[in-house]
Amino acid sequence: MAGAVREIVLPAPVTVNAAESYIAAARLGLGLIQIPRYHAEASIAGNELVRVMDSFPPTNTPVTLLYPRSRQLSPRVRVFIDWVAALFRA
C-alpha cells in the first residue's frame, strides 16, 4: 500500500545507546530516529531509510571537551582541541 498511512502504537519507547542500534530499529519499522547524518548516509543512499521532516532540522547540540586541569596543557591535548575547534568552525 504505497502512500498509505499506518499508525502503530508501541508498548514502550525504544532506548539504545548507539546510532547503529537506532538504525536497526528504524529498519525494523520501530519509528523515527534522529542521529548524526554521517551515521545514516549509507542507509539513505541504499534506500533502506528515508529522510523525513527535512523542514524541521534538529537544534544544534553543544560539544564540550573535558580534560584534567594542570598548570601546563599537554601539547597533544592542545593540538586536539585546536583540530576539533577548526572542524566545528567549518
Query: Cα-atom Rg, whole angstroms?
Result: 19 Å
Estimate what percentage of residues fall within beta strands: under 5%
Order of helices and strands: HHH
| Termini gap | 43 Å
Low-confidence stretches: none
Structural class: mainly alpha
Tell me how many strands there are: 0
Mean pLDDT: 87
Biggest sheet overview:
none
Number of H- or I-type helical stretches:
3
Number of domains: 1
Report what the structure shows.
This protein has one domain. The longest helix has 15 residues, at 75-89. It is mainly alpha-helical and 90 residues long. The mean pLDDT is 87. The protein is built from 3 helices and no strands.
Topology, please?
Elements: H1 19-27, H2 37-45, H3 75-89
Feature tags:
90 residues, mainly alpha, 3 helices, 0% strand
Question: How would you concisely characterize the structure shown here?
Answer:
Helices cover 37% and strands 0% of the residues. The protein has 90 residues and is mainly α.
